[in-house]
Design a protein that fits this description.
The structure holds two protein chains of two kinds. Chain A is an alpha+beta fold. Chain A has helices spanning about 5-30, 40-50; strands spanning about 55, 60-65, 70, 75-80, 90-95, 100-105, 110-120, 125-130, 135-150. In chain A, strands 1, 3, 5, 6, 8 and 9 form a six-stranded mixed sheet that branches. In chain A, strands 2-4-7 form a three-stranded antiparallel sheet, with no helix packed on it. Chain B has no helices and seven strands. Chain B is elongated and about 50 Å long. Classes of the chains: A alpha+beta, B mainly beta. Chains A and B meet through strand 4, strand 6 and strand 7 of A and strand 3, strand 4 and strand 5 of B.
């Protein structure tokens, strides 16, 4: 293929516009924030997650996690929900961890409210699943007992 | 070889997306037993899942996710031939991505 000036301009234009597009989606999906994942206290993390919305306990959100975890480095969990309210994000917080916030997932309407992963727990602790709805955040907590910590070296 | 493995399974009108990524997920507080020095933090920060080019999930995570992270999502619908793409970025700006076609 022969590269001339016209062709060069065309490709740069295409590249720059697609680049801008992806930049916008990145901004919309909120940049990874070091503040939220800092070694802050549990209450502060809760405040940052809830976005100023009230947090209500709900039995319509389910956190499936073992009550006793033999190995704190690998604790599988599943979050499901029967809420009608459209859920924007699901966050998992472990109260006693040095960094309480484990993960914050933005779910688009194309996905069912379902997510499963594996997390680390330092000490026996409450694990919170918080789903952010339109006006309120729904939360559920489960106590997990850890026999071997997940953060020991 | 890509660090990401993707598996999909169609379950009555829904598609289960499962992914396994090989990554150390070090949080920076563990000590190397041989040298007695701290192992520097190295963990995935952002993971995105795309369905036919449209972002369906963005996960922001700390180092609280276990080593070699596993994630599962449930997609409403999903047809054979649809493309699922997953990519991640870690705190050292390493990146990887992988594509998978629903069968």
């Amino acid at each position: 293929m022969k590269f001339n000036r016209r062709h060069f301009l065309k490709t740069t234009l295409i590249l720059s516009t697609t680049g801008l597009g992806s930049l916008e989606t990145r901004l919309a999906s909120a940049e990874w924030s070091a503040v939220r994942f800092a070694e802050s206290g549990f209450d502060q993390t809760l405040k940052q997650i809830s976005n100023g919305k009230p947090i209500v306990e709900s039995d319509k959100i389910n956190l499936d996690i073992p009550e006793i975890a033999e190995n704190g480095a690998l604790v599988p969990f599943t979050v499901t929900s029967t809420l009608d309210d459209p859920i924007k994000t699901i966050s998992i917080i472990v109260e006693q961890n040095p960094v309480p916030l484990i993960i914050q997932t933005q779910l688009m309407p194309e996905l069912e409210i379902f997510m499963s992963a594996r997390l680390k727990i330092a000490n026996s602790s409450f694990v919170f699943a918080i789903a952010e709805g339109e006006k309120v955040c729904y939360s559920v907590k489960k106590k997990v007992k850890v026999t071997i910590g997940g953060c020991g070296g | 070889m890509s660090s990401i493995k993707i598996r999909t399974k169609r379950l009555d009108g829904k598609t289960q997306i499962r992914t396994l990524i090989s990554h150390p997920m070090e949080h920076g507080r563990n000590k190397d037993k041989a040298t007695n020095k701290l192992i520097p933090a190295h963990f995935i920060q952002v993971l995105t899942v795309k369905h036919n080019g449209k972002i369906i999930a963005t996960c922001d995570m700390g180092a609280g996710i276990s080593k070699d992270p596993y994630f599962a999502f449930l997609l409403k619908g999903g047809e054979p031939g649809d493309e699922i793409a997953i990519d991640w970025t870690d705190n050292l700006s390493n990146k990887d991505s992988e594509k998978h076609t629903i069968s």
